[in-house]
Design a protein that fits this description.
The chain contains 13 helices and 10 strands. With 291 residues, it is α/β, with parallel strands linked by helices. It has 2 domains: 178 residues, P-loop containing nucleotide triphosphate hydrolases (Rossmann fold); 46 residues, no CATH class. Bound molecules: adenosine-5'-diphosphate.
Length: 291
C-alpha cells in the first residue's frame, strides 16, 4: 500500500479570520483510491482541498500547523510549479477555469502543456488522446466561451487530465450541471480512477458518491469527524447527527427499518434495495400477481 496524501494534526487559520477553520485534521489516502469529502457548508471542505493542493501555504498565508505530505514529500518542500504537475485541481465553477487567452478548445486544453515547454508533437498527441477520452473531439474548434456549462466543465477536466497529475482534487464539479452533464463528469472521474489516479472529490450528490467513491471523509465545523469506507460511514448511527443527506435509497431503507421492516444490510445503491429487504426471492409469478 502506497500512501499518496498524508495529513498529520493539520490546523489552519486564514490570515483575516479569528478561528481555526481546520482543527487537528489527520488522515491518509492511499494511491489509486477515490475519496469523497462531505459536510455542510462552511465545514472546511474547500479549505481542506486547498491544503492538499498546496494553495495553503503557498498562496494563502495564515497559520498552518501540523504536516501535509504528498507523495512522500512535505508540502513545504514543493515549489508551486511542481505541485501543479503532481496535483490537478478542478474548480466548482467551470466558467472561471477557462483561461480566457485561447480561442478554441484544442488550444485551451494544450495551454498547460505549452507553459511547461512540452514539445509540440507531444502536445498534439496528448491533447488528441484527452479530447477523445473526455468525448469532446467535436468541440475542438469551438470557442470555450461559446460552450454550455457541462461542456466547459469537461474542457476544464480535460485541461487538467492532459497534464497527467497523480492526484486529482475536484471541488463540486457538478453543482451547476444537469443530470446528464453530471453523469458525464462522473464517467470521466471513473475513467481516471481506472487509470490509477488518486481522486479527492467534494460533492453533495450522495447517490453518486455511494456509486463511485471508496472512502468518505466527513467534515464538521473544521474537524474531521468520520473517516472510512463509504458503506461503513453511512451505516454508522453517528452519521445522522451531522445532518448530511444520505443516499436516497439509504434514507428510504432506514425509514422502512424504523417502521419495523428488517434489513439484511444497509443499501447505499439503488440496485441493492430489494436484496436488503430480502425481496430478491420474489418470482416472476408474484410480481405479475402484484400488478
Ligand atoms: P466548505 O467548503 O465546507 O463550505 P470552506 O472551506 O469554504 O468550507 O470554509 C470554511 C470556513 O473558512 C468558513 O467559515 C469560511 O467562511 C472560512 N473561509 C473560507 N475561505 C476563506 C478566506 N479566503 N478567508 C477567510 N475565511 C475563509
Amino acid at each position: 500500500m502506497t500512501v499518496m496524501i498524508d495529513l498529520k494534526n493539520v490546523s489552519y487559520r486564514y490570515p483575516v479570520s479569528d478561528d481555526f477553520v481546520l482543527k487537528n485534521v489527520s488522515f491518509s489516502i492511499e494511491k489509486g483510491k477515490f475519496t469523497a469529502i462531505i459536510g455542510n457548508n462552511g465545514s472546511g471542505k474547500t479549505t481542506l482541498c486547498n491544503t492538499i493542493r498546496g494553495f495553503i501555504p503557498h498562496f494563502y498565508k495564515g497559520d498552518l500547523e501540523g504536516e501535509v505530505i504528498v507523495d512522500k514529500k512535505r508540502m513545504s518542500d514543493y515549489q508551486l510549479g511542481q505541485l501543479g504537475e503532481k496535483v490537478g485541481y478542478v474548480f466548482q465553477n467551470p466558467f472561471i477555469q477557462v483561461s480566457g487567452v485561447k480561442d478554441n478548445v484544442f488550444e485551451e486544453v494544450a495551454y498547460g502543456l505549452e507553459n511547461l515547454g512540452v514539445p509540440v508533437e507531444e502536445i498534439k498527441k496528448r491533447v488528441e488522446e484527452v479530447l477523445t477520452l473526455v468525448k469532446i473531439e467535436h468541440l475542438r474548434d469551438k470557442n470555450p466561451f461559446d460552450l454550455s456549462g457541462g461542456q466547459r466543465q469537461r474542457v476544464a477536466l480535460a485541461s487538467i487530465i492532459v497534464m497527467d497529475p497523480d492526484i486529482l482534487v475536484i471541488d463540486e464539479p457538478t453543482s451547476q450541471l444537469d443530470p446528464i452533464g453530471t453523469e458525464q463528469i462522473f464517467d470521466i472521474i471513473r475513467l481516471m480512477k481506472e487509470r490509477g489516479k488518486t481522486i479527492v472529490l467534494v460533492e453533495h450528490k450522495m447517490d453518486l458518491i455511494a456509486e463511485y467513491a471508496d472512502n468518505l471523509l466527513v467534515m464538521h465545523e473544521g474537524e474531521l469527524v468520520m473517516n472510512g469506507p463509504v458503506r461503513e460511514v453511512f451505516a454508522n448511527p453517528a452519521f445522522r447527527k451531522y445532518e448530511i443527506q444520505y443516499p436516497h435509497v439509504t434514507e428510504i431503507a432506514l425509514q422502512l427499518q424504523n417502521l419495523g421492516m428488517p434489513l439484511s444490510f444497509l443499501p447505499v445503491r439503488d440496485i441493492e434495495l430489494a436484496e436488503a429487504l430480502n425481496m430478491t426471492g420474489v418470482n416472476e409469478y408474484d410480481r405479475t400477481s402484484l400488478k
